[in-house]
Amino acid sequence: MTETNNKGKLVIVSGPSGVGKSTICKEIVKGLDDVYLSVSMTTRPKSQTEVDGRDYWFISEEEFQERIDKGLLLEHAKVFGHFYGTPKDKVTEALEEGKTVILEIDVQGARQAKGVFPDALMIFILPPSAKTLAERLDHRGRDTADAAEVRLNGASTEIAAAWQYYQHMVINEDLEQAVKECVQIITDKKNEAQ
């Protein structure tokens, strides 16, 4: 797909677990007009605070595999033992409507999506430090100690890969400032395209 000026813009936001991507993405939506925040699908169990269709679409592995087989996902990856993917139809529809589409996805998925949409704007969210990231993961209380350690180990790999693939790196030390930076990056890119 080749983007034209009357089409929307795809924005990929990635970062290690616990860095605050979800919060930043939700705040970006509040700071911009005509934005669609894509909701990913996953096979992982839903936490008590999550809502199906708002946080993720929670589906079985069989349903997920069927979507892969039918080519219904823009990108997909197995991360920490569970599948995650982006429904292709919703993204395409929003882009056709001229919306800015925000994908909150991991580095693997971002590379796949960038292959389909080479003009995608790529933003990687960094923690202020590894210590801060560890504290945030612990504070969120979603993972066992072993799972949190696996996520922390994966963070350094993701960060190393991000320096190769992402145009913009934003440090989430102060949430308001990080959101402001992301909104500015997206606004500048949209203005550039006009």
Number of distinct helices: 7
Distance between the termini: 18 Å
Write out the CATH superfamily name of the domain at 9-38 and 97-193.
P-loop containing nucleotide triphosphate hydrolases
Shape: globular
User: In oligomeric terms, what are we looking at?
Assistant: single chain
* Uncertain runs: 1-6
Task: Name the CATH class of the domain at 9-38 and 97-193.
Answer: Alpha Beta
What's the total number of strands?
Answer: 9
CATH architecture of the domain at 9-38 and 97-193: 3-Layer(aba) Sandwich
Largest beta-sheet characterization: 5 strands, parallel
Radius of gyration: 16 Å
Order of helices and strands: EHEEEHEEHEHEHHEH
Tell me the strand order in the biggest sheet: 2-7-1-8-9
Query: Approximately how much beta-strand content do the residues carry?
Result: 15-25%
Derived from helix and strand composition plus strand pairing, the structural class reads: alpha/beta
Per the CATH scheme, the topology name of the domain at 9-38 and 97-193 is: Rossmann fold
- Mean pLDDT across residues: 86
| Helicity range | 40-55%
Q: What features would you highlight for this structure?
A:
194 residues; alpha/beta; Rossmann fold; five-stranded parallel β-sheet; four-stranded mixed β-sheet; 7 helices; 46% helix; 21% strand; globular; disordered N terminus
